[in-house]
Amino acid sequence: MAKTLMAALCAMILIATIIATVTEADAGGRSWQRSGKVTGPWGGTTNFKRYGTCQGGTCVGGGTAIGPGGGVRSWSNTRNCAGGSCMGSGRYVGPGRNSFTRSGTATYGNGAWQAQGTTTGPRGGTGTYQAGGSCAGGVCSSSGTWTGPNGGVWSSQSTLSKTGNGWERDVVVTGPNGATWTRNGEGACAGGVCNFGGTVTGPRGNTGSYSGSSWWKPRW
Fold first, then answer.
1. What one-character-per-residue DSSP string does 52-96 give?
2. What is the CATH architecture assignment of 2-217?
3. What is the pLDDT of residue 216?
4. CB–CB of 51/36 below 8 Å?
């Protein structure tokens, strides 16, 4: 169960990272930071921190997550964008120092984007990912798939809606065996700081929660 949950979280991180780095393609001259915690259904807490900066078409980001047992996970990403297309790469390192790498390309423009690439695991196994999305009328929708080295497919569907000074976001991740994980959250911004929170529910109905804050410099 723990390995399955971790695979689901890795799939969420992978697709969310792809979405985030494409979204940041035009965020020249800005930096951001996000921190918070995730509390599992049995009370264990993971503290996370993410950060990034964009300048001249290049965005660099990373982060760490420390689990309830002290295990540390880290990730880093770089993306270079120009003329509506991007090239990116990233690396994820687990508590056992096993690492996964990612490389790919993306295109964006007219309120839409798409991305594709490959991932490589610590034993050399490779997988592929595809993702895309669009925004209109204050609502952004995205979807993506990740196919592992053994042919198992993880998929993700996400909707982000603007609500006044804040937003609502719903994400569904489906594993190779049809099991689903859902994330429902919302946030609001004031004074240059955005606070957010929500819940994550697993296929057996167990529910955890998350909360945190973000800031951008200069302000959006």
1. EEEETTEEEEEEEEE-TTS-EEEEEEEEEEETTEEEEEEEEE-TT
2. Beta Barrel (2.40)
3. 86
4. no
**Residue ranges in the chain modelled with pLDDT below 50:** 1-9, 21, 24-26
For the chain, domain boundaries: 2-217
Peptide bond into 218 cis (omega under 30): yes
Dihedral sign from CA coordinates of 135, 30, 47, 9? positive
| CB-neighbour burial class of residue 82 (10 A; exposed 0-12, middle 13-18, buried 19+) | exposed
Phi-psi domain of 111 (left: phi exceeds 0; alpha: psi -120 through 50; beta: other): left
Contact 91, 100 (CB under 8 A): yes
Distance (Å, whole) CA 87 – CA 76: 15
Give the Cα separation of 134 and 142 in Å (integer): 7
Which residue has tokens 């410099």?
217
Considering only CA atoms, which of 152, 197, 195 is closest in space to residue 173?
152
**CA-CA distance, 191 to 46, in Å (whole number)?**
27
With 0.90 as the threshold, say if the pTM is over it. Answer: no
> In 187-214, which positions are buried (b, 16+ CB within 10 angstroms) versus exposed (e)?
bebeeeebebebebbbbeeeebebebeb
Residue 14 has what pLDDT? 52
